[in-house]
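Why run this: before we spend reagent on co-expression, it is cheaper to look at a predicted model of the complex and decide which construct boundaries make sense. The entries below are exactly what would go into the expression plan.
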Amino acid sequence: MKWESLSQFLAMGGYGFYVWGSYAVTAACLVLELFALRARRRRAMQSVALPEGD
Amino acid sequence: MNWFHYAAPNTFYPLAGKMIPWFYALAAVLGAIGLYLGFFVAPTDATQGEAYRVIFIHVAAAWMSMFLYVVMAFWAAIGFAFNTRLSSMMAQAIAPTGAIMTFIALWTGALWGRPTWGAYWVWDARLTSELILLFLYIGFMALQAAIDDPRRADRAGAVLAIVGVINVPIIYFSVKWWNTLHQGASVRPGGSSMATTMLWGMLVMALAFWMYSIAAVLSRLRAIILERERRTDWVRDLKRTAIAGAAE
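The model came back. Tokens follow.
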């Protein structure tokens, strides 16, 4: 194992802000996209109107 | 297997639904392996220290941002030339994921540039052309959203997408053609300037982003199919099945 402790891992040799700032925003983007996709699919299904008397 | 069979929205819709979970699963597995390689196997960089570990998402997102644009323009062009509905829907489905990949490439690039170059942003050729790529994606989406008639929106979007393709080789070769602050390509035909484990981490992460993008694009394509075909019998049948399933 190249990291001796969790705090050393989180510090990223002093570059923690840049490294974790990159990974956190990337993860947030992907999670937001997944939520948006689910919402869009549901809205699309709701917008399907069945004819009268169906 | 008759591939044209799947070119119709009503046959592609269930096929895509079956494929999506597999692509998400592959993305998750490859992402886990890539992160493990990137954080626990790849060594510290001799000149950049740990800051270089941004590379594992930066390069993956930057590659996808360019690749998705070319694929988007390809399907937009097919839709424009042959009036095939699904092709244009595919182009429309790719744009938001492409824009997100471009944003990630720019964001992670800024956070990598600050410790290595001393600046979050510089107006050099590579960064500026990548920013233009983001504007092209946003322009494509805005243009399509602004035109009510879907067929006309597709045609207008296709023209913009096709003209914008010229930007992709400019991004790719910018580090060669101009004297930029951005480093040259680390991966070239015939060799790489990186440690093997670094390279593997990067390639596996790129594959993970690829699988994720396919899954996200197919998911969005399914929603777009529903939106555009909502007055057709087969979509109404889908809704009836969904209602019946919920009532049970």
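Helices of chain B lie at 9-41, 55-82, 85-117, 125-146, 150-164, 167-177, 196-228, 233-247. Strands of chain B lie at 187-188, 191-192. Bring this page to Monday's planning discussion.
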